[in-house]
Design brief:
The protein is an alpha+beta fold. The protein is built from twelve helices and 18 strands. The strands form four sheets. Strands 3, 4, 5, 6, 7, 8, 16, 17 and 18 form a nine-stranded mixed sheet that branches. Strands 9, 11, 12, 14 and 15 form a five-stranded antiparallel sheet that branches. The chain starts with 6 loop residues before the first helix and ends in an 8-residue tail after the last helix. Bound molecules: glyoxylic acid and manganese (II) ion (2 copies).
Length: 418
Amino acid sequence: MNVTINGERLLQRLDELAEIGAIVGPAGDRGSARLALTAEDGLGRDLVVKWMHDLGLEVSIDGVGNVIAAMPHASGLPPVMTGSHIDTVATGGRFDGNLGVLAGLEVIESVMSAGLDLPRPLAVGFFTDEEGARFAPDMLGSLVYVGGMTVEEALDIRAVDGARFGDELEAIGYAGGAPCPGPAPHAFIELHIEQGPVLEAEDIQIGAVTGVQGISWTKVTLRGQSNHAGTTPMSMRKDPAAALFEIGAELHRIVDRVGAPQVGTIGRVELIPNLVNVVPASATFTVDVRNTNDETLVSVEREVDELIHQVADHHGLSVETETLARFAPVLFDDRVVEIVERSATVRGRSVRRMPSGAGHDAQMMARVCPSAMVFTPSVRGVSHNPAELTDEDDLVAGCQVLCDVMLELSATTFEGAK
Ligand code: GLV
Ligand code: MN
Ligand code: MN
């Protein structure tokens, strides 16, 4: 079975979707801001769902707004599914998530136009709130799809702006009736940009993704005594900002000492009242730590927690912590990874195996069916930034490899599928 995808059509759809919630970065780069369940997310969804209907796909929407579109198929067999997400961070690029969804649509359109009679149908979906930037945890929609969280729990989650997930979902018209957890596909394969520098640095065109590193997100609130910045002697302060900066510096020392692939980030900070001449009353911040090895990640989490309490104690502050997300490392199905490697090689593309540093919906789908991912290079490794870029040739090649993998998966019977 051999189908050639239409690269022009893929690129055109990527451009069209990127215009919804379009933003311009400081260097003039054009990105997108479609935070989950905002009006912009709703408009992006409407466009992609229209494209799904135009192709005559069977579209279902579940109770957390995950949208799955399947080829009509007489067999009634579970589909080979692909997909990703179309929500973005507030400083999003044009490709993170969008590539996987629109490439899936492109594969299905090309396969249907070729009139192929596949052993199993193909399906493409987009999952709600993969980014977790507005509602934590990340990969929320796919987590619910595989039964890792109930619909009711998800609907009650509060956004960083205070809005309730269920209310926002209703407001954009995507509270659907399809059952959740959803049916397990035959297999799941997700195309995504790497979002890191490895493929470009090694001049490799395709990543065959072997798994996703463990992710731990914690929200920390330190409370002290708000006071006058001029009159309060340094020795008499209870200053949450001073503690936060010590914690930030020490977090980096811990991560450096543990060494790669350990990473650690303080990505969100809120000082109250956030005024030039006021010692803050509170500092709220997030800690994101990740590692491919769960034991190491657990020990880093413990060390960071001790650090936070020690520094807070020293400054006379109270501490509150809340786990926003905690996902163990995931290993993908080697049989699917092998198909990715082989498909890239057959198309004359250089390929290497690699873990993913970012979280992805495929890591949730791996709980219910054989799964893996295809990576394309990211120029300068930049992502979650309007400057995010992947060369057109790499976008099209990634989509072609996705197509080849899906066709092979459609004809593959997995013995003892997990
Ligand atoms: C999700 O995109 C994450 O890895 O933070
Ligand atoms: Mn993504
Ligand atoms: Mn992302």
